[in-house]
UniProtKB/TrEMBL annotation:
This is Endonuclease/exonuclease/phosphatase domain-containing protein. Pfam families: Exo_endo_phos. Residues 24-269 form the Endonuclease/exonuclease/phosphatase domain. GO terms for molecular function: 3'-5'-RNA exonuclease activity.
Length: 269
């Protein structure tokens, strides 16, 4: 079935010093179970079919950068498939140290970041394994635009699913904050010659945060992430969507996930 986009993809290729980015939890190959998604026709949950649909939809966005969570089959399918489409990529797999209610003990997924080879070159990569029992990860990637040498730091993560235990989610977010802050200091020291005087490296954080725009997580991202003198702003903050498909307070989409438990917005850029 055809699913209309909330916001049309920008015309491409993008102009120098601008780029497009897309964020999606693709639902790992072992997690699309009929009882969790009862409204979906069973054949469409089949991974052999679903992964091809995902590639077609993601490729149609023509995004310069793709941040994907619950990414499974990276080495055998997604990396070679997107290489053929002009994207290089990096990936971090979740550890399998604990039993999870949703994904069991053996984790098959992780976070991946794909970027157009014609647009960016890869400069630095750091993976983060959060120090708790939820086997969650983050990926931090420094890219440099080929046309202008502009640096940009992109982070992708997937916080724990249980929104009622926000202290666990906040612990992961604070850990991401610290790792990203340390990396930005390292980047500013190492790449001084690539930064105009007085300028900082732009930062973009993408992910499935598993909580709503009214949550303390969202407020922390807006008001406290990285440095007090930096202002983080949602990519949707400048949009004013008049057709009722956005939250009137935050401009976030009304939902980015639908399953048997809930229908709400939890993915952010």
């Amino acid at each position: 079935p055809t699913i209309p986009s909330l916001v049309q993809a920008a015309a491409h290729p993008s102009a120098p010093s601008t780029f497009s980015i897309a964020q999606l939890n693709i639902l790992a190959s072992n997690l699309a179970k009929p009882d969790r998604f009862p409204y979906v026709q069973p054949p469409l949950l089949d991974w052999a079919i679903r992964k091809e649909i995902l590639v077609r939809q993601l490729a149609s966005l023509q995004a310069d950068v793709l941040c994907l969570e619950e990414l499974s089959d990276y080495w055998t399918f997604f990396r070679p498939t997107f290489l053929a489409l002009g994207y290089d990529s990096v990936y971090v797999k979740r550890p399998s140290g604990h039993v999870s209610e949703w994904s069991g003990e053996k984790k098959m997924d992780g976070c991946g970041l794909f970027f157009k080879q014609s647009k960016f070159r890869l400069k630095e990569v750091e993976s983060v394994n959060f120090s708790d029992e939820h086997d969650r990860v983050a990926l931090l990637v420094l890219l440099q635009e080929i046309a202008t040498n502009q640096l940009v730091l992109v982070g992708a993560t997937h916080l724990w699913w249980n929104s009622s235990k926000i202290d666990h989610q906040m612990k992961q977010l604070v850990e991401l904050h610290r790792e990203m802050a340390d990396l930005t200091e390292f980047i500013h020291a190492k790449y001084t010659e690539d930064l105009p005087a007085g300028r900082t490296v732009p930062v973009v954080v993408c992910g499935d945060f598993n909580n709503s725009p009214s949550s303390q997580l969202y407020k922390y991202m807006e008001n406290s992430f990285l440095r007090p003198d930096w202002t983080m702003k949602s990519a949707y903050a400048d949009y004013r969507i008049a057709d009722g498909t956005a939250d009137t307070g935050s401009n976030e989409p009304l939902h980015t996930t639908v399953n048997f438990r809930r229908c709400w917005a939890i993915d952010y850029i």
